[in-house]
Structures are given as C-alpha cells and as structure tokens.
Amino acid sequence: MSNRMGLEISRLRKELGLTQKQLGKIIGVSEGFIIDVEAGRRILNEDLVKKLSKALRGEIAKLDLYESENNNYKPEPQKNVVKVVEKPVQDVWNDALAGVIMTVPVYNYKMERQAEIKQLPIINNKVEGFAKDKVFYLIIEDNDMVGFRILKGDRALVYKTHEIDKDGIYFLDYKGKKTVRQVKNIEGGKLLLVSNKGSLVTEAVYRKDISVMGRLIRLEILL
Fold this sequence. Notes:
Elements: H1 3-15, H2 20-27, H3 31-38, H4 46-55, H5 89-97, E1 101-107, E2 114-121, E3 126-127, E4 130-131, E5 135-139, E6 155-160, E7 168-174, E8 177-186, E9 190-196, E10 200-206, E11 210-220
Parallel strand pairs: 1-5
Antiparallel strand pairs: 1-2, 3-4, 5-6, 6-11, 7-8, 7-11, 8-9, 9-10
C-alpha cells in the first residue's frame, strides 16, 4: 500500500482530533492495525477504504489504493477507487462518533415525551456500566429530596428497572404520583420510603403498592 496513503490517513485523523485507538474502534479494527496502516505496512481492501473514507471526510478515496514499484505502470481507470460524496464537517463528526457516543433521552416525571437530549460515551458497549437501552435522564421536578442534595431542576441519570435489588434512590409511582424516594428494605416484606424536604419523612409501604421505574445512578446539579 502506498506510504503516501498512510501519511494522509494520519494527517486527517489528527485534524479530526482522533487517536489511533479511537479511529480503530470506529471502523472496527485494532489500534495496532491503524498504526501499521499509517506506517504503510498494511494493504487495505475496498471495504476498509470505504470505512476510513467515511470516518476521515472521504478524502483518502482520492488516493490510489496501491503504488507500483514500476513507475511506468498505470492502474486501470477507476479500479479499486471509491466514489465519495463530500459531507459537511458536522455530518462527518456525527458519523464518526456514532459508534462511541450515545444520545440519551431526557424526560420529565410524566415521561410522555422527550424533553431534551444529552450525550454520553459508550464504553465496552455500555453507558456508565449499564446496557445502552436501559438508561435515561430524569428532570427533578420538586424539592422533596433536598436533604439528599437533590434539587428541583437537577438532571439524574436513571437505570431502567422494575426491581428493587438493593437500597438506593429510586424513581417510582406511589398512590398515582411519580416521585423520587430513597428506598430501604425492612422486615415483613415492606419497604421504607424516605424523603427529606427540610426534615426527614419516612413511610413504610408494601412492595405491591409501588411501581418502580428506575434507580438513580448519577446526579448532575443545576448551577
């Protein structure tokens, strides 16, 4: 493979602010593979050229895939050349980051429609250690948990679950009202719901009387 192509790939990667490891992850190869490509030690097939072209503005497709040792050799026209339609830089970034960044929906307590979106990195195919389709943000709508430093307007990252697998702070429906409460298991198959709106309030309830929608795993405060 042409060393010139490897240098061009390296240049474009650096322009986009991507590391060799990130570029490899985007196109589905190892960091070592990208290192070899940029050093001119690897021959790219057409499929990999397409992927690299998509990630790097499509510009490497303008180079010949192979370079002959015979300077008089001329490759057949259009052979192994990928035709690429140029995209705006923002579209290129969106495509390149699609595999490493996830758009997470943000809901209010009614959860009738998405109020806004936030973006989080995907690591080992998970977001914050949880399955990608099991997380969402919740806009805190009251000060019932001010004693826990959870204030109205804060955004809480929530793990979708209908179970109470351990003590924690949960988003739940109780007596027809959606709310956030600290939940603790107590004797007799009951749960203790704890809130703190300036003073601590506890209420013992049966598990069957509440509907759990998720467990809070991280809080982003409103400044």
